[in-house]
Amino acid sequence: MANERRTPKNYQPGGDGPTSMRPVYCTFCGRAAEEVQTLISAPFGGAFICDVCTANHVDLLRAHLPQFAKKNNVRRAGLATFTPRSIEKALSEHIIEQDRAKRILAVSVYNHYKRIDSELLLGVEGFEDTEIEKSNILLLGPTGTGKTLLAQTLAKILDVPFALADATTLTEAGYVGDDVESILSSLLQAADFDVARAERGIVYLDEIDKISRKQDSASITRDVSGEGVQQGLLKLLEGTIAGVPPKGGRKHPEQPLIHINTKHILFIGGGAFDGLDKIILRRLHQTPIGFGAKIPTRVDEKAVDLFQYIEAEDLLKYGFIPELIGRFPVLAPLNGLSREALYRVLTEPKNALVKQYRKLFAMEGVELEFERAALDLIIEKAIERGSGARSLRSIMEETLMEVMFQLPDNPRAEKVVVTQETIASGEPMIIMSERMAA
Question: How confident is the model at residue 357 (pLDDT cuts 50, 70, 90)?
């Protein structure tokens, strides 16, 4: 057939069914069925519309949509089903506590992708000349509080490519180490080398506190892994066309490059920032000078998490250049985890460690049970190691390693019970088998 079309049935006015076939025309433009590719009939009323008019109407709607854009119409491409509240709720299914950080992230990420989508809508009436700048995020908090997990979970929720880059491996261009632009190679690989998808991804810069300047004043020697890296990151964070080696590593003149626009890539920096709390405390306790000066309230450094009082000037004294601080306008402090929070980390989230190990044992047909006293002792050991929730897994591995080695060769095993004595002295765990039950 030269023209593929849907031929509608025609009805005489007042009739109960088709009585004859006669030429039909587009109700809008008057074209006959033979003149168009497709002619679609309305569910009732005997009206028809052709593919030409359909295309014209779509273009017309696109041209006028910005001036009629409503709150819910602005959401597109990744945010159609998300709001800050729903993002925070999804984060809470994987991360315990850190309510303030989760709320800051939810709002910032929502606004970031809304900013991208509003550009697709060609602006909103009255704000056509207003460009929304990108707001990268800086996560600050002790090790093991969930900074990396927050960034990874965000990318998974929004279904965007995610790349984890270690800032400690970066050096200034021309020196041994990774070029700052090489961090985009992992993002490109995560996007299956789809450049358009990579340009909407998330990059997490881990250990970003390690690139702080070695001292508060400019160094007389070359600081290739500190201030030099900070300078190199500026354009990347703000938005530039970066040439990325497909296989990573350093660039060289004869190597083909893939060009990525970083304008819409969300960068999240994270670090423990050891010593920053002392800088904050000194500022809070600084004695004001002059009559009528307001004396700040004394803060007990042991009773509160000082990162909640962070300001840009503290990062400047820590060793970050002002330009880099400006590229991270959103600061999200994370609190240290209490004993109760660590217990919830072990048991409550979707991917809680206790659930993970129970699943591993269930694959062997064995039930795994933890006594509360055993979990409390695991938490005490994690606190002693000073690495927060990160050390929980290593303690669990040490505890269960021997029994996981034996289980595949013991088909009669039914149940493993982890007791306080198991954690304290490494005594054999109770394994209930059919023979023992008899």
Answer: very high
